[in-house]
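WP5 quarterly update. Target: Putative permease. Source organism: Edaphobacter modestus. Length: 907 aa.
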Amino acid sequence: MGNDLLYRLRVLLGRERFDGELDEELAYHLEREAEKHRRAGVPEAEAMRRARLSFGGAEQVRQQVRDGRGVRLVDDVVRDMRFALRQLRRSPVYTLTALVTLALAIGATITMVSLVRTVLLAPLPYPQQDRLVGVAFTQPGQPANDEQTGATADFLIEHARSFAATAVYADTTSGANLAVGNDNAQGAVQVAVQAVDHNFFPTLGVVPVVGRNFTAEEDRATGPKAIILSYGLWQRMFGGDRGVVDRVVHLNGESFVIAGVMPESMAFGSDDPRSLSAVADVWQPLKLDEKNPGYPGKNYNMIARLRDGVTVTQAQEEVSALDKPLYERFPYLKDWLTVSKELPVFVVRPLREVMVSNVRSSIVTLTAAVVAVLLVACLNLAGLNAARASRRQREMALRSALGASRGAVVRLLLAESFLLAMCGSVLGIAASVPMLRVLLASSPVPILRAGASIAATALLTPLLVFAVTLVCGLAPSWMVLRRNTAANLKAGHTVGASAADGRMSKVLLVSQTAIAVVLLSAASLLLAVFLRLRATPSGVQPEHLTVAQVNLKGAGYASTLATTQFIDKVLGRLEREPGVKHVAAINGLLLDRGLNIAIPPKGKDQKLYIIELRLVTPGYFAAVGTLLLAGRDIAETDKAGGPMAVVVSEAFAKKLWPGKSAIGEHIDRLGDTVGGSPVVVGVVGDARSHSLAEPPALLIYEAFQQQPDKTMKALNGWFRTSFAIRSAADVDMAAGAEAAIREADAGIPISRYTTMQAIIDHSLARPKFFSSLVTVFAGFALVLTVIGLFGLLSYQVSERTREIGVRIALGATRARILGFVLRRGLLLTMVGLVVGTGASLMLPRLLRSLLDSSMYTAGAGASAVSWSTATALAAACGAMVVAAVLASYFPARRASAIEPLEALRME
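Structure tokens (predicted):
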């Protein structure tokens, strides 16, 4: 409104004096009111009079103007949104690129935040879960855990007073054969059994939905035999029959009474990261006793519920005071020294921290990678918006000259970013649903079984919209605020981008290049670890090698004779199968699970040797393809009552008898033996015991038949017996293996049938998953960086078309113009590479959260880490340089093809 209108307003309203802002607002609303009358055909003077009458006196006008300011602001915002929408519709390629970029980046962010919320932040499904703690006997500085030995757990139960209740349970589930009905030899199925003491469920605060908990009497070694069913097993096998309580079933051939059924919410297993061990189908009493074979080792876990008023810190102070009395009572524990010469101590941690300790670092690290991708996407769009804003400098200058405030101009620019952020967030929420499903389905890490809530995490959307709008709109807004309006109006259409604007675009591009280099380095490093692990020899030849596993538990297989008779029957039947070349049995399959035992030190300054024991049948090494280096294999003559024969691995022989032959040496292993100390009769090639990431294990192999009944019963209770079947070609031996086992004992089902290659692949699943996931993130960041570099150079070429035409007209060759543009793109890339390389030097330490430290340095030491880091950086830099050349080439080629006459005609 002009000064004349303001003057007339003051006259009509009695020459009242208002501040300038109120005058403008008043003029705006009075003009709107008068316009309504004009549209109805009322003359100008009468329209103004009616508008004045509708407003009344000056004070009333002031109040009405104040009330109407919100209406005007809403009108302005709506108008800006409409204009921004038209601008986006005129640039469909840019709009589609921005929406796809934001949808993928925001979708990945919401997916990872959903996991963080569900896994790390959601409350545990137990009453007063903040009072639950895990109590461990562990080395200082170890991740939160609740490991205990039988002795230390009993000691704590006897002396600790900070806990209202304590519970001990086995550190893993074990397979068992469950049969329903009077004939326990038919219809047995495999179930996962968890051994827990009678205080386990009361400590958690979980009550059975049917029946009762275990009694103290049932938890004694000589007590009655009872089990509790999981809700899922109750539904599958018993159809949800509430009369199942007190029903007799057969577990491993022994009779058990069903005491109760746990609720459906009872998910206390490692398949759920917020739990402590594998999900169980059946719980049975732990019957913790000093006579248990695993009592001295860390084969148990312990949880507790704090007394009212007792904090975790206070409980820690109490158990720390028990360390000294513990070692006085159990002096042998002083031999449990770590490399750093530190003894284990009692540690109390919140149960939530214990439950997520194995996945916390992984999820947080992946979330950081996703946020980095989102930042790259925002920087990319910010750079493109800055280029678009530079083209609109004269438009913005004209708006300012016609009276638009800087705030109004900035609001107009932010409107476009807001629309993109809002639509991108909506698409991101939709994309996060399949992303989460794919992530959970493909993850070998038990991230989640119950599922994460995208709906709850979608509340994050307004924050994401605000952040994306701010980041994407800051660059063009800052450019508008710092430019001189008069200079822009005088410059005309050819003003182009200023030096400061160019610097901003370069800073944005360098930033996203640096982030992309870090992600590429991380992906290269993880991929290098995975490839090195995959190339690591396992010690067996997996080609044409299948494995059938069974659980030989219960009173029926508590003796060596019963076990070997079953094995002999199965092997005899399998040998007659067509296509079978070799077949053998082992207790504790390599890369699966096996027994670790201790060997006394050979010298005064040495500690106990912790080695791996495997029981095998004759011909095992030929069946699995392990090379016999010296001596002989386990033979048929190695029977009960004869001299104990043992075959050792090459690493074991070098460790105990360096520089000389191990054949004929004796091994004084701890525990019961038959026939005196075992004598080494053979040396075989090294093999990995639990993981390809570990160094070759110190392995000894003994014959099944030479084990005492006590040892055989314990091994059958802990580990599955595996039958290794070497065939002449890829033949499905499932039917033959099932028939052989059923013929030997109809009550023993196959617990697992697989190939050895599948077992090896499973051991590599974790590094493969993380390397693949980070590679996807890095690839996305690389594509965004290429798009940003291509867009920046294309914009600069278009803005400098006249300059390039002049250069060509003055004699510059097209090859020189091509090199000129290419150098600009590569120079920006090199700056980003330098910054990103510096940041990437911290990756080895950060990525240890994704992979075990032993996995990361498998058999190579510090030099391998340095080599992997250098290789990863070289690969990342190489990929970025190649991408930069490709992104720069096409704008450079377009620049070199400019015709001078056409360029000089441009205004």
